Amino acid sequence: METCRVLSIQSHVVRGYVGNRSAVFPLQLLGFEVDCINSVQFSNHTGYPHWKGQVLNCSALEELYETLKLNNCLKYDYVLTGNIRLIYNLILYCYCRDKLMLRKMVEIIQELKQLNPNLIYVCDPVMGDTWGGEGKMYVPEDLLPVYRDEVIPLADVLTPNQFEAQLLTEMKIASEKEALASMEKLHTFGPSTVVISSSDLGHSQALIGYGSKISSSLIFLFFSTNGAKTQRIKLEMPLIKASFVGSGDLFAALLLAWTHRHPDNLKLALEKVISTMQRILQRTLDAAKGMIAEGETPTFKELELRLVQSKVDIENPEMCVKAVEL
């Protein structure tokens, strides 16, 4: 059986795990060949006191891609985009410098889909998040319509957080009913699979995630208004009380891998994704606590993801969460 090949366009750090550093290792462990385009190369993510590095510009991206084309190296089964910019502390320095960079990425994905009509594009629309109860964008606001109107219609799998889903749909999500309605609207943009990776609809000890998949090959409980069969999934995840960077990139990579292995079972795929995440994040927090004095709070340096130490959990996740179909 031929190995699947992924093109991952994300940021890169020398130290730590975010962007491609967070996504490539688990994909390789799960049997994928991964080609990387690093949108930035930084010393570390921007949550540290100091960071420096280089930014890939539009012409450099085009140069890399066109040389791959000359070498006839454009046969991909998946494209994964996520953290195309490093984020934290709301430092408004856009590493996807302008709309030209984003639109060049769109052109690349369009061409790759023409070369392989079965290519699956997994898009993590990293645009913002909620901190302290307030939603904030990581990217300039004028990139939102480019994501919504040009990037997301190409996506087959979309993984927004609650804040990003609200931005894209212009719908408030304050209840489960509204979360489901938001995913249904996101389906109309193009993606057949939508996963709201995290929401604040849970309680003090748990996060809630939702998934929705439109497919005619499955047996479902719900029929959407346009007649397409839709599977809807809800997951409750124990809340691990720490701030991790790179976990969203890890989530999208794991979702790519497990939906590939279970294309007709979103429920099982999400259970494996979240079970893996729970093990990795808890191991990371436990290790961080062992590096600091009692009563201190771990910093980003101590909370770099323990991916290498989680090899067994990535390859064979022990199920610790249970999803339900709605």
TrEMBL record:
CDD domains: pyridoxal_pyridoxamine_kinase. Pfam families: Phos_pyr_kin (PF08543). One of its GO terms (cellular component) is cytosol. Its EC number is 2.7.1.35. GO terms for biological process: pyridoxal 5'-phosphate salvage. It catalyses: pyridoxal + ATP = pyridoxal 5'-phosphate + ADP + H(+); pyridoxamine + ATP = pyridoxamine 5'-phosphate + ADP + H(+); pyridoxine + ATP = pyridoxine 5'-phosphate + ADP + H(+). Belongs to the pyridoxine kinase family. This is Pyridoxal kinase. It comes from Ciona savignyi. The lineage of its organism: Eukaryota, Metazoa, Chordata, Tunicata, Ascidiacea.
